[in-house]
Specification:
four-stranded antiparallel sheet; 8 strands; 134 residues; mainly beta
Length: 134
């Protein structure tokens, strides 16, 4: 439930064809956010919401969409499978998921990737990463 959260779009794009590398990673975007000020880390709760519209064939559905937070020397990864009961082959399918941002006073690098089966082409209709603050 996002009620009471302030939302700020930190990355957005559309109409992209992704050619995956041999290591099976398709980079979509990356951004750096300063979730908390350098002076103090508040008790606020902060999340990012990832939304994407992706088209792929059956072969692509073996993969996942993944978001990574690089926090100092630590990494936090969250992903969801592209295959789901309502996903339609050769159609754009909507995906969304959340990640809670750890309390950390330095900039946090956020990246969004698709990890399909090797050497597949994925069509990305749109994506958006939103910072949610309460």
């Amino acid at each position: 439930n996002e009620k009471g959260y302030k939302s700020t779009v930190i990355a957005k794009g559309n109409d992209t064809q992704l050619s995956c590398t041999s290591d099976s990673t398709c980079n979509i975007t990356s951004a750096t956010i300063q979730a908390w000020s350098n002076k103090r880390i508040s008790s606020q709760r902060k999340w990012i919401r990832i939304d994407a519209s992706i088209k792929g064939t059956n072969n692509v559905f073996g993969g996942r969409i993944q978001s990574t937070l690089q926090i100092g020397d630590s990494t936090k990864v969250s992903s969801i499978r592209l295959a789901r009961p309502l996903a339609e082959k050769d159609e754009f399918n909507e995906y969304a998921f959340y990640m809670e941002i750890p309390r950390y006073h330095k900039p946090i690098d956020v990246s969004l990737t698709v990890v399909p089966n090797p050497n597949k082409v994925i069509q990305l209709q749109s994506y958006q990463i939103t910072l949610l603050t309460k």
